[in-house]
Every structure is written in C-alpha cells, then in structure tokens.
Amino acid sequence: MRKRLVAGNWKMNTDLNDGFRLLKDILDEIREKELENSDVHIYAPFTHLKVFANTLNGSGILLGAQNCHHETSGAFTGEISTDMLASVPVGGVLVGHSERRQYFGETSEQLRGKIEQALNSDLSIIYCFGETLEERESGSHYDVVEQQLRSVLSGLPADAWQHITLAYEPVWAIGTGKTATAEQAQEVHAHARGVLADISSAEVSNSIRILYGGSVKPNNAAELFGQDDIDGGLIGGASLKADSFADIVRA
Ligand code: PEP
Q: Is 169 annotated in the active site?
C-alpha cells in the first residue's frame, strides 16, 4: 500500500512573520490522527527554512525547499546547494516545477543534476512533470510526460527510487482554477506508472507515489485522491490557508 502524501508548495508567498503564523495555524489543524493516514510536506521559501525546521522538529511534517542547484558548490551567486539545505536541516526538495521550467528555463539535464545532488545530500525529491494547454489540445500530452520522465529519470540507481515521489501537474491547471477531471488525471498517472515500469522495475512502478497537482481544493480533493493511481496532491494556492490545506489532508 502506498501511503498518501499531501504537500504544500507555498511558492513566493508570505514574509517570515506571516509564514510563521500560517505554519502555526497548520500545526494547530494537523495532528497525529491526520498524519497516520497521510504524510504531509511543506515546501517553504528559503528565508523561512531555519525557523520552520526548529518549529517542525518532532511534528511529523516534513519541511522541504522549492529548488536547489545542480552543482555541489562553487561560483553560482545566489544559488543554494543541497548540502546547504540538508544542514538547515531540510528533508526534501521540489524538482522540475513547471514554473521553474517555464520562467527559469530549467533543462532536463539540469533537473537530472538536481536530483543527483539531492540524493547525495539524503534529501527526498518530488519530481514534477506535466503538459501545457497547447500540448494537451494537440493530443501530445502522453508523449510529453513520457519524455519528461524518461529524459530525467532513466538510469537512476535502484536504491534512488525510494527517495522519489512524482507529481503530475498539467500546466494548464496550475493556479488557474481549472482542474483536470479525476478521469483525465488518472489516465496520465496510469501512463506514468507504465513508463516507470519500463525505466525502473514493476516493483518501483507499483510502490512509487504519484501526486496530482493543479487547482486542488477541499471540494475536489476526495474525488481526485480516490483514483487508483493518484496517491495525494501537490497543493499551491490552497496550501496558503491552514483550514483548506488541512481539509485536503483529511480528504
Ligand atoms: C503548484 O504550484 O504546484 C500547484 C499545483 O498550484 P495550485 O494548487 O495553485 O494550482
């Protein structure tokens, strides 16, 4: 059985004071009972990580960063390495979010580098993939997601997979209020599992968690999470309100 996972991606929202208040509210809402059924992660801005790590210590909620660099260290002004994250300590990192692919031009090669760095630093990884509206409308979405999985994940060592979660995030559904139907999401998740069986093994393909992301809200979470191949969600907007985030965890 794959344990459910609900992850909040705060993106570039909240200053440290507002963020700390939100974190406290989330901790008031999410207790042991919720964590028995679902893992919970929070991907916070870099500036919040040290304070959040202290606050979340022992809470059962995993703290993650939204990005990392694909090299170990060096002359990369403004960048953050995975060893720096691990020393905070932070437990995980998002890789390949569509906003980073789209606005920062991140390539498959760089994303592979980030995953390798994260593995070397013992961080867990949520690797995001998903097609644009144009790709969906032209019917190429299956090929696009397959390529995003193959180009970045092929050839990983067998012991890497236990640290990786996937998140299918159709770009047209992120922050738009437009959600993929449960059926549309399920079809792509099942396809992704097939690709994984080919590039890893049947065992990995059955055990890896695949989250759905894209305008998940308390009123649509249960239907999405009820699909066979959907193991939880990566939540943007609705993770910025403690009660909505907690309602999604309960779903
Ligand atoms: C995201 O940023 O990963 C996301 C899914 O955002 P939203 O829930 O706001 O669509």
A: yes
